[in-house]
Design brief:
Layout: E1 8-14, H1 15-21, E2 24-25, H2 50-63, E3 68-76, E4 84-88, H3 90-109, H4 113-124, E5 125-128, E6 133-136, E7 138-139, H5 145-153, H6 164-185, H7 191-204, E8 206-213, H8 216-226, H9 235-247, H10 251-264, H11 273-287, H12 295-302, H13 306-327, H14 339-351, H15 357-366, H16 369-389, H17 394-409, H18 416-422, H19 425-428, H20 432-439, H21 447-461, E9 478-482, H22 498-504, E10 511-515, H23 516-522, H24 527-535, H25 540-543, H26 553-570
Parallel strand pairs: 2-4, 2-7, 3-8
Antiparallel strand pairs: 1-8, 3-4, 5-6, 9-10
Helix pairs in contact: 1-7, 3-4, 3-6, 5-6, 6-7, 8-9, 9-10, 9-12, 9-13, 10-13, 11-15, 11-17, 13-15, 14-16, 15-17, 16-20, 20-26, 21-26
Length: 577
């Protein structure tokens, strides 16, 4: 161990030797295990399969008898219970532990208990007389440590994953056990020697550069320098490690605020897309539209030293509670407001748009309680109007919302009326004539949006107050019916050519709400079958469709013009009194 007063000490050593000679722990604020064996659970076909790549590269290097470099591992000496804290390298160390555990299991399965016990004691769990059991040489993060200890170190087959990161550990463990079985069988009767050689090779030739520093703050400073270009790191990784590196003696304050931020956002592990969106939208609300690729550099430009790091971390903590309120109408933030406000928030959540979030962050941070109650319902109307005319394209709209957000934070704009009259947001919200003209030909392909529009219009037709705040609470009992079916047959719908079917089927005027029972019976049926069922509906706008003797292009156009006039009233441009 290097002298305690030495800022930095480094050495190249085998990754298994690092496990064998150090007592290591992942700090509670680091992200959980995240390496994958496949991308079946991801929407992204390019999702990395790190465990597969790890084993493939190791195996090729072993067969060719060449050394293999796994990068750096940054550790701080100031750990708990004499352990060093792993600031960088935990994914590689954890996966190597799983590989060694797979080798140990193969020794056990084949009756080579001495080799299995030696592998266990040297690299996985050392026997502790005080507790009468093996204690892990490497302790994972808080969400994974108990499962890893039971399932991997103690070989407890009854341990069941209870979260996503534990599923990843289980999958990686199973994959590596399968690969080790194949790897051993290729050596025939010499399987034991081959596995023993693999362990020694991991101990000596699969190398990392271990960088030891005195404190966590020093470790994050080193990590920040090593990863300055941001390769293969998430926004959350980069931001966290930069803030921690800047924190100096105030690291505890920054760390506590960071942990609270993740809790406020309900994030299971650091680095998912929710945090990235939050950081981008927060910065957009302060400095104007910020692209994802610019988040890290923008933060580096405004945080310089411990005081800035603490202030920004506290801002993340405060803003994250507000941001979660944008994602969930069940957030306790809305408890202090009238029900109409939480209803409006729920509608905005259902619409699932991101462009206006910077504006909402500024409003919730700055406006008075009363003004927030005016703004949130008004935003619902603005969004619907903007969607109908197509002004909410991601780039243009987010720029306008972000500029307005910045003007709110600077004190230039202080009311909902000013947002509409004095900022570029007003350009996104069409007047009544433009809105009606766009609504008359609006095609809506999102079922949830179409269902919301029809529910609000139904309430407007019934004379309800604030119909735009209706929430889709009964989606299980009411279906969205396309009167001209999406799969219309030419013999039952002869008035529509194939191209006309594609044009008219998603028109708002062609859709209505219907109870599930009747809807199930009429599906792709003809108008003569649908007409009496629609006419029996208790919903006014559905019932009125039965007045048509035949359902034609003209019927759809006429009905949608009627709905457009209702829409002007349902989603007013100016805030309601």
């Amino acid at each position: 161990m290097p002298p305690k007063n030495e800022f930095l000490h480094y050495e190249a050593l085998g990754i298994a030797r690092l496990l064998r000679t150090r007592a290591l722990a992942v700090p509670f604020y680091q992200r959980s295990y995240s390496w994958r064996t496949d991308n079946s659970a991801s929407q992204d076909v390019d999702e990395k399969q790190q465990v597969v790549d790890y084993w493939s590269d190791l195996q090729a290097s072993f067969v060719n008898r060449t050394s293999y470099f796994l990068g750096t591992a940054v550790v701080a000496r100031a750990g708990q219970d004499g352990r060093q804290l792993v600031i960088d390298g935990q994914q590689r160390l954890a996966t190597t532990s799983l590989l060694i555990a797979a080798i140990r299991d193969k020794f056990f399965d084949e009756g080579e208990e001495a080799f299995a016990a030696s592998t266990q004691q040297e690299y996985l769990g050392k026997f502790d007389r005080r507790v009468g059991a093996d204690q892990p040489v490497f302790i994972l993060g808080v969400e994974d440590r108990d499962f890893y200890d039971r399932r991997v170190v103690q070989r407890d087959g009854t341990a069941v994953p209870t979260n996503a990161s534990q599923d990843l550990i289980e999958n990686a463990y199973a994959y590596l056990k399968e690969q080790i079985g194949t790897f051993a069988s290729q050596a025939g009767t010499g399987w034991r020697d081959r596995l023993n050689d693999l362990v020694l090779w991991l101990d000596e030739d699969v190398q990392v550069v271990a960088i030891d520093v005195a404190t966590e703050a020093d470790a994050f400073l080193i990590f920040e320098t090593l990863n300055d270009r941001g390769a293969d790191l998430t926004i959350a990784d980069l931001l966290k490690n930069f803030l921690f590196s800047q924190a100096g003696p105030r690291l505890d304050e920054v760390r506590d605020a960071w942990v609270a931020t993740l809790a406020n956002l309900d994030i299971e592990r650091v680095g998912n897309q929710r945090f990235t969106d939050f950081a981008r939208h927060l910065l957009s609300s302060k400095y104007g539209r910020t692209r994802e690729r610019d988040v890290y550099q923008r933060i580096k430009g405004v945080v310089n030293g411990a005081a800035d790091a603490v202030a920004f971390a506290q801002e993340l903590k405060d803003a994250s509670r507000l941001y979660y309120a944008l994602l969930s109408a069940d957030s306790d933030y809305w408890a202090d407001f009238e029900s109409t406000v939480s209803d409006a928030a729920n509608v905005l959540v259902e619409l699932n748009l991101e462009q206006f979030r910077p504006l909402m962050l500024s409003v919730l941070s700055t406006f008075s309680h009363e003004e927030i109650e005016r703004f949130v319902p008004a935003l619902v109307s603005w969004v619907i109007r903007g969607l109908s005319v197509g002004t909410l394209g991601a780039g243009t709209a987010e720029t306008a919302f972000s500029e307005a957000a910045r003007e709110i934070r600077s004190g230039i704009v202080t009311t909902t009326d000013q947002i509409l009259a004095d900022t570029k947001v007003g350009n996104l919200v069409p007047d009544n004539q433009t809105f009606a003209s766009a609504f008359e030909i609006w095609r809506v392909t999102r079922g949830a949006l179409a269902r919301y529009l029809l529910r609000a219009l139904e309430l407007q037709e019934r004379g309800e107050r604030e119909p735009e705040l209706v929430v889709n609470s009964d989606v299980e009992s009411v279906n969205l019916e396309h009167i001209l079916p999406k799969s219309a047959r030419a013999n039952t719908w002869p008035d529509f050519t194939t191209d006309e079917q594609k044009t008219f089927v998603h028109r708002v005027g062609n859709m209505c709400l219907l109870q599930k029972g009747p809807n199930g019976r009429i599906g792709n049926k003809s108008w003569s079958v649908k007409q009496p069922i629609l006419g029996a509906s208790s919903l006014k706008l559905t019932n009125s469709t039965a007045n048509e003797t035949n359902w034609t292009k003209g019927s759809i156009d006429h009905r949608q013009k009627v709905l457009a006039q209702l829409a002007i009233l349902a989603w007013p441009r100016t805030p309601r009194a």
